[in-house]
Amino acid sequence: MTPAAELMDRLGLSDDELCEVLDVDPLSVIAGQLDHRPELAILLALTTEASERVGPQTLRSWLRRRGPNGTPIEHLKARQFSAFEDALQILAERGYVLRTP
After folding, report:
1. Which of 1, 35, 48, 71 is deepest in the core (most CB within 10 A)?
2. 6 has a pLDDT exceeding 70
3. Where along the chain do its domains lie?
4. Rounded distance, CA 96 to CA 53, Å?
């Protein structure tokens, strides 16, 4: 599995979302030309621990839920990686908390 496919699977991203997060075109993903993208390795490293801690299904669900500082998928799509890292830190500290509206 390529690193891009691994990230896509781990976070439950669509093809379009992966391209948006990495700021690449679909052909680059298909051709596996993402080795020069440092954010790919960083995102894989950041999400490995979270996936191990809360489980893959929970991580995928968490990605699309609004947290104290916004929705993690929106941070990724806006390429606000520090905000995404902060959200992961909150997940590590508090766990996955569901609230009723």
Report:
1. 71
2. yes
3. 3-94
4. 10
Hey, what are 11's tokens? 């976070």
Note the pLDDT tens digit of each residue in 27-83. 877 777 777 778 889 999 999 989 998 999 999 999 999 988 899 999 999 999 999
Six-digit token string for 82? 């520090």
Q: Are 56 and 7 in contact (CB under 8 A)?
A: no
- Structure tokens, 20: 């948006």
- Asked whether 28 and 76 are in contact (CB, 8 A), the reply is no
The DSSP bridge partners found for residue 84 are: none
| Mean pLDDT of the residues in the chain | 88
For residue 80, the 8-state DSSP code is -
pTM score, whole prediction: 0.85
How does DSSP assign 21-70, residue by residue? Answer: HHT--HHHHHHT--TT-HHHHHHHHHHHHHHHHH-HHHHHHHHTS-BTTB
E strand or H helix at 79, and its extent? Answer: none
Q: Supply 59's token pair.
A: 């991580």
